[in-house]
Amino acid sequence: MPYADDENSAHDGEPRELYEFIGPNTTYRYTSGTIAVTYLTNTYALVEGLRRSSVGSGSTDDPVALEVSIACSAQVVEDYGFTTPPRSLRLKVYRQQVNSAEFQTIWDGVVVAISAKGRMARIRSASQMGDRLSNTVPSVSIQRTCNHFLYDSHCTINAATYDLAVTVSVIDGAELTVNTIGGASDSWYRAGKIVRDSDGESRTIVAQVGTLLTLHSAFGVLAVGNAMTLYAGCDHTVQTCNEKFNNTVNFGGHPMIPQSNPFLVGLRLKRDLT
For 131-170, what is each residue's pLDDT tens digit? Predict the structure, then answer.
């Protein structure tokens, strides 16, 4: 194959790479070459300092990952470098051998972190498998609060029963004002989530006062008028499970566990009596 021949040649190889960051509303395209490149009708612009690491070896401790260096002035850094990158920000890297004019996809993963230092930023992308391997496996604890995830198959509550369609009215970083709260009381949506209808990107709601929502982090890209859906939250106590959801039959905690260990209390009492 001409691409493979050029790639393996010590004299004829002349590679350049294209970086495509695919966001929920905007796609950012850059090239590491010396001139702008058009590929599949899309133009990849020049940007300062664009380079990458080699792909990691891959294991559960060191998942396959790619690190990209790029100038902070790049629009993708300005939009995402100072917020928590959404899982929907995806990175694809294409490598072209100029002599053969052939392209190969050499990377396809999700952006998991962006850190800026001085004039440069470092973007870390995990492969699809590596991203999944890096997730913490949940475990069940013996505790007073519920172990279930709200709306999962163990909780059994239907999310559609507790959702509300809204639109964004005001954006102030991680604080959003929506057009309605549907008559819900303050904190009804605390510990719930807000989901953008167009692509499913979501954020956890950490506080709610009227129509003002405080999120755990801002959306990287969001516009006034975006259609969103709110889902009520749960603090995982048996009181909320009963009063808000009428679902204590499926409560996944042990609310009658004593606050103190009776065995230790017994030992302390015996020691005090001696």
Answer: 554 555 556 667 889 988 899 999 999 999 999 999 999 9
Q: Does residue 29 have a pLDDT over 60?
A: yes
Give the architecture (CATH level 2) of 159-241. Beta Barrel (2.40)
Domain ranges of the chain: 2-133, 159-241
Residues 226-251 pLDDT 10s: 999 999 999 999 999 999 999 999 99
Distance CA 131, CA 139 (A): 19
Distance CA 125, CA 113 (A): 7
- Taking the CA atoms of 187, 188, 193 and 199 in sequence, report the sign of the dihedral they define: negative
Q: What are phi and psi of 233, to 5 degrees?
A: -105, 170
Residue pair 30/47 in contact (Cβ under 8 Å)? The answer is yes
- The architecture in CATH of the region 2-133 reads Roll (2.30)
Closest CA relative to residue 215, chosen from 190, 198, 196, 185: 190
